[in-house]
Structure formats: C-alpha cells, structure tokens
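Changelog excerpt

This revision adds worked examples to the README so contributors can see how folded entries look when concatenated. The first example is reproduced verbatim below.
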Amino acid sequence: MAVVAGVVALVVAVFALRAWPLINVVETGRTPEYPDITPRAYRMSPDRVFDAALHAVHRLPRWSLVSYRPETGEIRTEARTLVFRFVDDVEIRISTLGESSVVGVKSASRVGRGDFGQNARNIRAFFVELDRQLGSTSNHD
C-alpha cells in the first residue's frame, strides 16, 4: 500500500510541476508564460484608479498594505498564501497614457524557484477586485 501511495504522490508531483512554469516572478506584459496577464487601461483619472487600487488591496484576503505613494502611483503590498503562509511581494503601478490610466502589476515570491502559479493568481485576483471597485470599466478586452 505504501508503494502505491508513493507512486501516486510522484505522479501528482510531476503533474503539478508541469502544470505551471518554473518561475517565481510574474509581471503584466512581461511574462511570456502568461500572455493573458497584461496591463489594464481605464478611462478615468489616475487619482480615482489609485484610490480604487488601495481599496482593492484592502478587500483581498491575506493581502497587507506595505506602502503607497500617490505622487508616483506606486502601491506595495504583501500577499500570503493560504496553506503555508508564504509571502509574495506585489507592486502596483498606476500611470497615465493619453486620456487613460494604466495599471501594471508585478508579483514575486520571496522563496523558491517555482510558485505553482500563485503570482499569476495574485495578479488576476487584484484585477478582478479592481474592476469591481471601478465598476468593470477597464479596456482590457
């Protein structure tokens, strides 16, 4: 029975390692392994988007605000994983492009060589909450 359990554990481990790329940093528009994770543009003022981003950070479970600088459009947070409480550093940048505000996000694991997709999940969760805060008015689709 122990041999069967060992084989099952090995198969699950191999599947898990192949399911996600072996990276521990994901950044909008800069991580080829996640082509769907791109910066988001919103047709509203950077101040409004920045405020909504701060609210989004506060609404996400296991996320903690580290620092923010409205004058530069930067927000730094920590996101903890559910099971092992690993910490990922999440940087959010709001900039202006024409009449739109653009939001870029970078999520990086502090430990390990692979994140099992956690940094991509961090960014996706942030954008879902940001869209909710802003009434789903991004131009990303």
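The second example, added in the same revision:
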Amino acid sequence: MGHFTGVRTKQVAFLCWVACGFLFPGCVGYRVGRQALYRPDIQTVHVPVFTSESFRRHLGEWLTEAVSKEIERSTPYKVVGTPAADSVLQGRITSTSKRILSENVFDEPSELETDLVIQIQWLDRRGVTLIERTFGIPDTLVTIMGTATLVPDAGQSIVSAEQEVMVGLAAEIVGQMEMPW
C-alpha cells in the first residue's frame, strides 16, 4: 500500500505542475531575482583603465579595479580583458578636489572632504549606449560624483578617504548598469 501511495503522490504532483503551466503561460518570459535587473543580451563587459585628468597618480587604475570587482560581485556579467566583449564600460575622472571643513585651535585641518567626479559610458558592440536613465532615453555620458570625509586626527589619510570614494563610486557605476523599470 505504501508504494502505491508514493506513486499516486508523484502523479498528483506532476498533474499540478502541468496545470500550472497551462494556467500561467504569461509568466514564462519573466525573470526572477538578480537576473531581472540586468540586460539578458549582455554576458561580458570590457572595462579599460579609466583615464584621469587629476594630478593624483593611479586614481584611474584604482577606480577601474573597484568597478571590475563590483561588476563581478553583484551582476551576472563577466569582466573580460578583450575589447571584443558584448559591451565596453569606459570612464574618465574629470575632477578631484579636497577642501577643509573645519580646523583645530592651531589652524590645522581637523576635518576635510575629498570629491571625485567621473563620467562613464557603457556601449554595446555596435556602439549603442546601454545606460538609460530618463524615460527610456539613452544617456551617452553619465556624470557621477563621490564624496568622503576624512579626519586626520583620527588616523585617516587621503588614501583611505579616496578608497572610500572609489568603493562608493564603483557601486554607483554598477547601479547605472541596471535596466530601467
């Protein structure tokens, strides 16, 4: 009797599964989870080293590394080293600045702010812009700004503040790669 019940249960489960296929055929094309946020026609992204108009050395390399790691970590895309990828994400650091927010009693900076402004462009193989931000209109160049506060008295350096900005900018750049709703 136990064997008969197990077979019967499997038959009922199969019939329920088939019935769901007939009842909800419109749901077949939907994507669920993280995959739904990203373009299904793109699998690979080439990220050339971001250029920099700053006199601070290695900012472009740092940002490129942070962006590549964030793409690999939080998207279904694979970062590849060839321009023959499905898409190319290019970027340029257009501005860096550092300003004093407050001083101590000896007129030494006690709190500073560092800013980075970048422009990015994400293109497919045909040169078509893939970032759409406003009403489905492609944005050829997207400008993003990142800011971090630095407190030298607490042991922070300009390098640690810039690293904080890089991580935030990388997350913002990858966020721009999501499909619009």
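Reviewer comment on example two: Residues 27-33 have pLDDT under 50 and may be disordered. The longest strand covers residues 87-103.
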